Amino acid sequence: MSTIKADIGVYGMGVMGKNLARNLARNGYKTAITNRTPSRTAKVMEEHSQEGTFIPSDSVKDFVESLESPRVAIIMVKAGPDTDAVIDQLSEYMAEGDIIVDCGNSLFSDTRRREATCRERGLHFVGCGVSGGEEGALWGPSIMPGGSKWSYDRLGPMFEKISAHVDGVPCCTHVGEDGAGHFVKMIHNGIEYADMQVIGEAYDLMRRAIGLTPLEISEIFAEWNKGDLNSYLIEVSSEVLKQVDAETGTPLVDLIVDAAGQKGTGSWTVQTALDLSVPVTGIGEATFARGLSSSPLQRAAAQGFEGKAAPWAIEDKDAFIEDIRQALFASKLVAYAQGFNEIQAGAAEYNWHINIGDMARIWRGGCIIRAGFLNDVTKAFEKDPELPLLLADDYFYAKIQDAIASWRRIVSLAALHGAPAPVFSSSLSYYDGVRSKRLPAALIQGQRDYFGAHTYKRIDKEGTFHTLWAVEGRPEEQWS
Ligand code: NAP
After folding, report:
1. Is residue 388 scored above 50 in pLDDT?
2. Whose alpha carbon is nearest atom 16 of ligand 1?
3. Measured from the CA of 18, which atom of ligand 1 is nearest?
4. Could you tell me if 64 and 56 are in contact, meaning their C-beta atoms sit under 8 angstroms apart?
5. 372 CA distance to ligand 1 centroid (A)?
6. Average pLDDT score over residue span 224-246
7. pLDDT at 3
8. Peptide bond before residue 420 is cis, with ω within 30 degrees of 0
9. Protein residue with least CA distance to atom 34, ligand 1
10. In the prediction, which pLDDT does 470 show?
11. Cβ–ligand 1 contact at 104 (below 6 Å)
12. pLDDT interval class at 473 (50, 70, 90)
């Protein structure tokens, strides 16, 4: 075994772990590596040992012993029981004050549990979100570490160095205690679902309404990428739509089965939002839209259903395309606003001190939702760290005002002509709901009190009220 001690170690030489280890080594950190199946560690040494200083081990004991104290061991394996198994193996050899960092996509509640267990053993546990896929891990991801401030003091400089940088600023910061890092990564992924879906809705409307080809839409997206919508996901979408199948000459997108997959982080975001009572309609509809696309039985049963929709007859195509762009941007802003509200609610519930402006800042580079407008989000939260709704910031309010007429036209046209646009339309409903002075919730409170004596509050006096809702023909013994 090597006598040099490593600055940091990575357990798991899968796609992400290997690239993260290479990134660390390339940046000058002596990096210990290991994997359950040793041949994968050997392959990394074979192919990449010249990129920096790697210290390979075939056993967990050797791996832990090769680390400088206090030891920092990153785990990059599948979330769930596999992660628990690796934590158990590492803790057997680690000593008080050592740090285990889980960089997989773990559920934040698992991270909270693991952090508590490790703390009892005298170990530090950091749940750390990493976004950017394979390329990001290798060249600079967006990194969202939770855990103690003490752990961040040890880890932070290394993670900041290997992260993406925008305007010289690292896309990494200490998010908050215990599960805060994985919580924020979960919301990042939820927002990613909504962002992808709104781009999909824009694409679909351009095809259905004005018959544009994938290549034409690719060019429109490339153009949009120069303005407010500048983002990695618009760029990726433009690239995907441009691809032609070499064998058939058909746009590749037309040969791909239209059933969207998911690994679960969108559902986690929605489930958690329900627990926290935060309306994340954009992320929710995007997650359900993937579910609908992947429901072959229901889709088969509904083929041939009459829509009684008016045929499309768009005269001014350029104006229509601009309306779609505006609807996309407004719906995207709503989805982000809702995601930030979920972070605020999570921070309040779990007592994390999360700076939302910093989250937007570390998402500007390296990650899948990187986008130009995140600079303006950071500014909005710098101006008011307690901003209750992104759309209430002057800059974003003005953007919504620019978009609103287009957004309404697109949502109504989609409904009239029978095109699904779940995130465009639910986001507009959210906007109209949140800006309403009175909502039908008053009637719901009445209904709840009627059948369940759940009580209600009044606008004209303090207190809690219950009414004996006498209804003609309803016997008194059924009251309340
Ligand atoms: P991967 O390529 O499938 O590699 C999985 C790794 O986990 C392998 O090294 C495997 O070892 C190891 N492993 C699995 N079960 C194990 C166990 N019970 N004990 C010990 N080792 C075990 O996975 P990946 O794409 O690198 O993803 C790793 C983590 O990163 C996941 O949590 C994923 O969600 C997260 N993530 C992925 C991406 C992405 O774009 N791929 C982005 C962000 C985060 P063997 O070689 O022995 O099988």
Report:
1. yes
2. 82
3. 26
4. no
5. 31
6. 98
7. 81
8. no
9. 105
10. 76
11. yes
12. low
pTM of the predicted protein model: 0.95
Name the phi and psi angles at 451, rounded to 5: -95, -15
Q: Once rounded to an integer, what is the mean pLDDT over residues 90-110?
A: 97
Mean pLDDT of the 110-135 span: 96
Ligand 1 pocket mutation, candidates 59, 77, 232, 268, criterion most atoms within 8 A of CB: 77
Q: What is the dihedral of CA 186, 433, 276, 334, to 10 degrees?
A: 10
Distance 190 CA to ligand 1 centre (A): 21
> Degrees (nearest 5) of the Cα angle 102, 348, 274?
80
CA of 314 to the centre of ligand 1 (A): 49
The average pLDDT across 380-395 equals 97
Nearest to 364 by CA among 78, 171, 100, 130: 171
**3-class DSSP state for residue 144?**
strand
What's the chain's average pLDDT?
Answer: 96
In three-state secondary structure terms, 31 is: strand
pLDDT reading at 347 higher than 70: yes
CA distance 426 to 215: 29
Active site residues: 185, 192
